[in-house]
What does this fold into?
Amino acid sequence: MLSQQELITLFKETRAQSELICSFLETEDYVVQPVVDVSPPKWHLGHTTWFFEEFVLKEYAKDYQLFDRHSAYVFNSYYESVGEKVIRTDRGNLSRPTVAWVYEYRNFVTKAMARFLEKEKVSEKLCGIIEIGCHHEKQHQELLLTDIKYILGHNPLFPVYNKQFKENPIQDIERDWVKIEEGVYEIGHKSDDFCYDNELGVHKVYINNFEISNKLVTNKEYIEFIEAGGYEDVLLWHAEGWDWKNTNRISSPCYWHKINGEWHQYTLGGMTPLIPDAPLSHISFYEAFAYAQWKGMRLPTEAEWEIAQNNFNWGSRWEWTESAYTPYPGFKTAEGALGEYNGKFMVSQKVLRGGSVATSKKHTRPTYRNFFHPQLRWQFTGLRLAR
Amino acid sequence: MLSQQELITLFKETRAQSELICSFLETEDYVVQPVVDVSPPKWHLGHTTWFFEEFVLKEYAKDYQLFDRHSAYVFNSYYESVGEKVIRTDRGNLSRPTVAWVYEYRNFVTKAMARFLEKEKVSEKLCGIIEIGCHHEKQHQELLLTDIKYILGHNPLFPVYNKQFKENPIQDIERDWVKIEEGVYEIGHKSDDFCYDNELGVHKVYINNFEISNKLVTNKEYIEFIEAGGYEDVLLWHAEGWDWKNTNRISSPCYWHKINGEWHQYTLGGMTPLIPDAPLSHISFYEAFAYAQWKGMRLPTEAEWEIAQNNFNWGSRWEWTESAYTPYPGFKTAEGALGEYNGKFMVSQKVLRGGSVATSKKHTRPTYRNFFHPQLRWQFTGLRLAR
Amino acid sequence: MLSQQELITLFKETRAQSELICSFLETEDYVVQPVVDVSPPKWHLGHTTWFFEEFVLKEYAKDYQLFDRHSAYVFNSYYESVGEKVIRTDRGNLSRPTVAWVYEYRNFVTKAMARFLEKEKVSEKLCGIIEIGCHHEKQHQELLLTDIKYILGHNPLFPVYNKQFKENPIQDIERDWVKIEEGVYEIGHKSDDFCYDNELGVHKVYINNFEISNKLVTNKEYIEFIEAGGYEDVLLWHAEGWDWKNTNRISSPCYWHKINGEWHQYTLGGMTPLIPDAPLSHISFYEAFAYAQWKGMRLPTEAEWEIAQNNFNWGSRWEWTESAYTPYPGFKTAEGALGEYNGKFMVSQKVLRGGSVATSKKHTRPTYRNFFHPQLRWQFTGLRLAR
Amino acid sequence: MLSQQELITLFKETRAQSELICSFLETEDYVVQPVVDVSPPKWHLGHTTWFFEEFVLKEYAKDYQLFDRHSAYVFNSYYESVGEKVIRTDRGNLSRPTVAWVYEYRNFVTKAMARFLEKEKVSEKLCGIIEIGCHHEKQHQELLLTDIKYILGHNPLFPVYNKQFKENPIQDIERDWVKIEEGVYEIGHKSDDFCYDNELGVHKVYINNFEISNKLVTNKEYIEFIEAGGYEDVLLWHAEGWDWKNTNRISSPCYWHKINGEWHQYTLGGMTPLIPDAPLSHISFYEAFAYAQWKGMRLPTEAEWEIAQNNFNWGSRWEWTESAYTPYPGFKTAEGALGEYNGKFMVSQKVLRGGSVATSKKHTRPTYRNFFHPQLRWQFTGLRLAR
It folds into this structure.
């Protein structure tokens, strides 16, 4: 359990970071929702604030007055059990509350929380809730970056978000294969540090001999797949991946553009020529799978990845695994509304491991289980081969 | 033909009026597009500006430099023949160009136009184009108001646009019936004043005896229809109207809300109790038709309306007619891109006559042919009975 | 009013004709519904039978016992006011009742009707209902042919329906123009012969000078339009026609196939090389309009067509007119369920005049108002130019 | 490897069984496809025949002449790599080839195969292909039964398929819990008998202590869940299950009908009162999961099920497991078109274990991995609790 002072530091630094991320935006950028998965930045700022107001201040802070009885409910996301909410597809249709209002709301709640944390001794349970609230906001910080990238990167003017943002670290190593011996291993979160409920339940798994690459697949390698006709060879694809690709006329990763015969990539630093040695990014699970098929290899499972991960560097791309997102043995949903956090998504999604250039600092770890539907590409998703 | 001075006045006053309408908005209100028919206000401001740049300055103003080679094309609407354009459903996904940029663009073009009009003698043809540009912008002023009403009126916070805006003038007269004698009449636009191409072609029509009400149907009268089960009686409805009503779960006009058992109406002045004697507004053609069926009467045709119109007051509501929007005898599409203005919409739409509280001053007349699809309700649409 | 003997003859000949049409089918052909507008032939046979059972025998024949209390209701079409019905899109999902059952049902009702007509003196009102029932069945005979054509013509095996069926009569005349003088004319159905309610209300119209072709547009002429790029020139099309064409990837009339570089046409007699001089068929209103635009001409209105029609031959193609399907002055919906026959479709459709090679004999006349949505092509639709 | 005589027996008995299943149908029942997952029976009969013609006779039988060069290709299902095919959603739109044609085609191919098997010594490889062809047809026999149930059970007349068909065996035992000890176990197909490629790769798994019920959940137990408001308690459901349920207005298993206050169930033997002690059937994975949540338990994984299965009776219902359908360690896709059999479906589906009253005899085994999307209910799907 964090000390109260550590909690205060975590809280303040988290709140500040969200605002730093948004400091590069124009007011208009906060408002739009070009596709359902991409929420307006002002919604993220409001929603992470609503979380603290709803689950902490309303419950625990004596005499706390809601900032605004009428508006705040628009920032509920999926907590069906906490009353009325704006349907997700409508988030981009709401010009009000304004961005200025959202910042006032943030300041109001941040100050009330700070006052509360300085005055009241928080119980272990409440500390846990606040810590979740901070990590929840860190998750939304990553979403802020990926959603901003989608908003600006699908605008025909391709505006720059922040020239300094570095998306494409080069992996300056030779490709090599980490060999893991067959046997019983233990996975799951062990320490007392923060983790989500879906990582809990340390348990044994039996693993066969396998090898895993020390290096993510690069842009250059993926171009070979494209040029070899990988997008046109039905035998490399899942049936639903093939349909997805055809329906959406996909023939390259998201954000790739061929301009005057040269591959370019939209990045948060603007449109730029594709860097051949950078790790591939913004691919769907289907594309990751088809690439691995083409190489005669496969994707690792999440258990393999976790067991092998201290043998290679990771953290620039979320790495698709072959594993579906299902509960660990002994998984228990938390009581009440916070029980809606993870468990209710445990069907039809794939696990991703690692972390990305957009992941908030200290917000990932070897046991972290990220999950997305197999067709989604707006996260910084990449791929590491196994065999 | 207008004198050059009249043209300058018309132009300046038109440009100023659009900005006055928007002066009540927050930046965020300029950006969203909750449904496809409702464009973001910044799009209207940009599009009406693009019209003058594209069709006047680029063609006629020597040495004119485009304000911005890259951005302006996002404001093309439907002129397929004038190159690339952003698809309509995407207008609300574009956070850039910003509102500030749009105002700079407006100022740049307004000033360039003003300089041009003060320096150059415009030909009759060019005068016609500029006049169309002004009337085009007046049309968009009406759309600005109805689109703003939709944006704010579908926000769960129901923000006020402008407390002073009066939507609901009372018709302070007894209902009476204007009788028109059977015979040959002439309709269509006769004078030299401005009109659209779809009003031209004065032509004779043969009209049977008919009567038309001097008064629009009121809210109170429509409530009687609702309470008599009008929305549940299939025999009153067109087949496609019945489907539309069921699919969209419609049981009252747009913007009506029953709050604590009392009918309220969202207006540009905010949420307010429904005014019983105000003219009914925001109904579809299907609802207008079903009401008339229920009364054992009918809607007038556009020819009947035009012949009878100087016998009653009109202008607070667009009045649905039974007439489909088809070309007048001898209708000719204009040459070039401006030929896309009216003719290409002459199928599957209904004619509305009159004008509304949102119509720009001097922008309607007895021969004006407005048109919308039968299901649309976001305009100030009402109904006048005939028999 | 028909004599009782005439009524009996009409009834028997009508019933026999439907069965003759279906005698060329395999059992399986009676069942399928490839698109919503195309009903399974067994549905047509059952529905026309249900009409007589529901509106005649149940009401007027003492002691009549329903053929089957449970099954017959599946043959209600759109009579919302006559109780439960199977939704239209589900017609092709029903394997039961079987085709054999439907024929038994037909025989049962046909015999009951024949007995009734031989025994009872029918009133004028009932005579009218039975006559409508016969004409209703004749309408469905045309639909049977066009629906069968769709079912077989969209089967990849392109089976022959009936080698003897002649779709493509040559118009063996020179193109000429019929000139009609400006003035007041009368249109609408005058004689005592059968007609639908939508033709009633003889009324005066004022017509301007116009010319209308004595000859339908031919396949050869339409190929010129295709080869001149008519399908790619946006300025020729209505906005919604352009979208329709693009969404559905239309670039030639329905049933046209280019096989080894030669145009072929699927006909009820099988796949055959296109006959250049045959009248064009199976086009949408949008295509008819675009062709006329390309020729610098237009489509006639329905009034023009009716006034001019005795100056040319017609009857091989339904001819799209510019007129929308709206009520004639004084139109009154019939009382009760039969009131759903015509009036409820009077929105968003276009009038077609004439008749086609699939129209039942004696089932059309100069005042007949056929109507379809502008995008539909499965009827034998063609076009005659006016100017 | 089967002896040639065993192969002949397997082949003949398989072919006969498909025809026996269809012997209860009317011709019309063979044709319809009410939803995309349900194929017309004639398609199943043709497709299983095409399999032998395409993969055996065309390749291996000297001088074999195709039954019909033009028609057979309509029976390709999803073998993208074997040329043109009719899209799946269109299967129910094809009245031709007729049912009689399909039976001729079956007889032709069955006889050619029999002749071939009696004359030629088949290689091990070919024996494997033919065996797959037989098991493939057995899979389609199960689909025939479930598709027929859907076709007749969604017909408003609820026709009986076969009065003798028994769907609802009572489990005449007390509920008890099988306890399995933690440790390393081996799963996967071991013997030389036939199995699919997805069962291969015997491998070790580590299993925690768990208990599994000896008895499937019964109708009576599920009614308790319904009556306790299980369908209305959001906290019991996956997010996408909740949406599925609401969108499709689901509040009971498929084929359940409340008639005069009593639960009934459509069965292949007709509509019948629900049997309280029969095993629950026709539920989605979402419903299985929600029920288990409500009981405070869970579904077993497929490994748990396989390890425990010889401690209880199974085979009347396909049992949803928590496991996603992913490849076993070392899974290899077969070469060529048959490689499309299993691997391409290994995403977004759930594994079901066991077998059902509709499963062909000898066509299931403890290692059999069935798989369906979580929302599907037309199979005989049930649920067994674990904890």
In short: The radius of gyration of chain D is 22 Å.
